[in-house]
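Ticket #4471: complex job returned nothing on first submit. Input attached below:
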Amino acid sequence: MKSSGKKKELEKVKGIPGRKNAKKAGIPLVLAIGAALLLVFSAANSSRAALTYYSENYSAELQMFDIGVTLLENGNEVSWRNYAQKDDIWQEGGGELLSHMLEGENGGKIQPGKAYEEKLSVRNSGSIEEYVRVSLYRYWEDKDGNRVTDVSPGLIELGLTGDGWVEDTSAGTEERTVLYYTGILSPGQETPALSETLRIEEEAVMAEGYNGLRFVLEAEVNAVQTHNAEDAIKSAWGVDVSVGENGSLSLK
Amino acid sequence: MKSKVRMQYWCSLFTFAIGLLLVCGIEEKPSTAYFTTYASAKGGYELQAGTETEIEEEIIELTKHIRIVNTGKVDCFVRVKVFAGSLTPVSYLDDSGKWRLEGDGYWYYQDILASGAATEELAATIEVPAGMEDMMDSFDVVVIQECTAVLYREDGTPYADWERKIEAGEGAGG
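Support reply: We reran it on our side without changes. The output follows.
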């Protein structure tokens, strides 16, 4: 008892910690070392890529990953948007759909009921593989360009082929049709045509109320990378898909 | 002394947690940016709808000279039917050869009638029965004319659907 009292007195006087206090003092040291190691490893992850890139020969083959897509109508380029390999610059351009539809037509008038050739397809005009989808809109406009909602878009009949394309019926309306190309589209490759014909139903010219209305067909192509496709498509398009072993896309 | 040790403890724990978050954050989501692009185009045409026709007729003695004019904006097909009393048979003259009488009693104009165009003439003459010559002014000849928009089959062949006809007018006299 007496000697123990002396020890405590000694600690108080000299500030020398006992075994218990020494243990407590060691914990922060271990944590600090652990934290430092974690920070070093986290930094090493990003620097690993740099080490690989700057190989000891100081040479590296650079491959640019540029995405690009082109909408085709009857084999002709209508609209495109391709990454230009630098500085976030995009090469984009195009014209109008249906601009050649009435060429050689009697009086330049639409012939109701006639099936006009309207083959829409997509080309990969980038340098990486991609998945594509096309949203088609059919609607009527008045002379001022306002959308007319009380005339059925069904009178504008687009003949779909179903060849390699699958329709997302859950995203479709009377006005909108969304189609997914189920395969991977390689650079330079074209999809099969998603549509074959465009036809204005006869009923459209029978009613005086339709006179002066303008029918409109609109197509929007979206493309996304194939790497990490399910997440990429979910993030870019908000759609859940499954990608098969052969790369085929299916809607969930 | 005790508070200093506690301070060191919490600082280290904090640093450790930050380090852990950094490592986990980097490992779990290597990238959330994806390569995407798009392209779009649209186009369309104005539609001319609704058919409208008028009869142009001239009466010379017992003959009615009938022409139909397309006053609408849409090309159409036309047909006419002539009604007279049962006592007065009607004879027809079609110099152009573009009118054709069908079994339903209608005369069908064979050509598509473009907007603003008129048909060739069809002449309808009534024959007054013997003994009724003094009643010539009291005979009525009624002409019914109908039109329908030109429709097309998928291959572009034009046709008329008389189930969707528009009865645009009629003329009487004689």
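Confidence is low (pLDDT under 50) at residues 1-7, 10-17 of chain A. Closing as resolved unless it happens again.
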